[in-house]
Write a structure and sequence with these properties.
By secondary structure, the protein is mainly alpha-helical. The chain has two domains: about 15-90, no CATH class; about 115-205, no CATH class. Helix content is about 45%, strand content about 5%. Strands 1-2 form a two-stranded parallel ribbon. Helix 2 runs antiparallel to helix 3 (about 55-60) and helix 5 (about 115-140) crosses helix 6.
Length: about 210
């Protein structure tokens, strides 16, 4: 693939993996499965070490390794074509300010009935990790004097967390998720609203088009 044309995105937003999965063969071709697994393995290594922007599409494609077909194989090669176009990029670490997207390592086991509740669950998971990291930093004498900022693009989840108003349809969330409101009052975390197209964490949860991905 050294002479291939680069892609602008690793995986197009129009790709419906659920539709592809519904037509996967019961007995896949062993050669295709083997080649597909090799591609996904290489992409996982790259995603972990040098190109975090491909983490979401690679994770989505990795679910079909045992039953891959030629269509999925072409999609995996498309991620490599995207990498060819961005191979000159580098990861730069800045000691003065570190910003990273919070992405859970596994699928959530809690069912949320609205986007605000789903975002609230993610906020709580992020805040719990922040509290642990702040405690560890304090033990290493890196004192945390200001709240850690968490960017949130859902205003409903932000309002519930800051007001602590777990009533009505969100009343059943109070016992399990109210600690986030206490973290805000104690100055451990601070939630700032951000536009959806600027939310870095979204890049690792769903495919994004060319302008936003850049």
């Amino acid at each position: 693939m050294t002479e291939c044309n680069p892609n602008k995105v690793p995986l197009k937003t129009s790709v419906n993996l659920d539709k592809i999965a519904a037509h996967l063969p019961r007995t896949p071709h062993p050669e295709v499965v083997s080649l597909y697994a090799q591609l996904i393995g290489g992409l996982m290594f790259i995603a972990i070490n040098t190109q975090p922007l491909i983490a979401q599409p690679v994770n989505a494609l990795a679910r079909f390794m045992p039953t891959a077909n030629s269509e999925l194989y072409v999609l995996a090669k498309g991620v490599f074509r995207y990498l060819k176009g961005v191979k000159s990029r580098k990861i730069v670490w800045c000691a003065s300010r570190v910003q990273f997207p919070f992405v859970p390592a596994s699928l959530s086991s809690v069912l949320a009935m609205s986007s605000a509740k789903a975002e609230l669950i993610a906020l709580c998971a992020c805040a719990a990790d922040v509290a642990y990291c702040r405690k560890l930093a304090n033990e290493l004498v890196f004192l945390q004097l200001r709240p850690t900022i968490i960017h949130e693009d859902n205003l409903g989840a932000k309002q519930i967390a800051e007001s602590g108003n777990f009533e009505g349809r969100s009343k059943h969330f109070e016992l399990r998720w109210r600690f986030l409101h206490h973290y805000i009052n104690r100055g451990i975390v601070s939630i700032e609203a951000i536009k959806r197209e600027l939310q870095l964490a979204d890049l690792c949860t769903a495919p994004r088009g060319y302008p936003q991905l850049q």
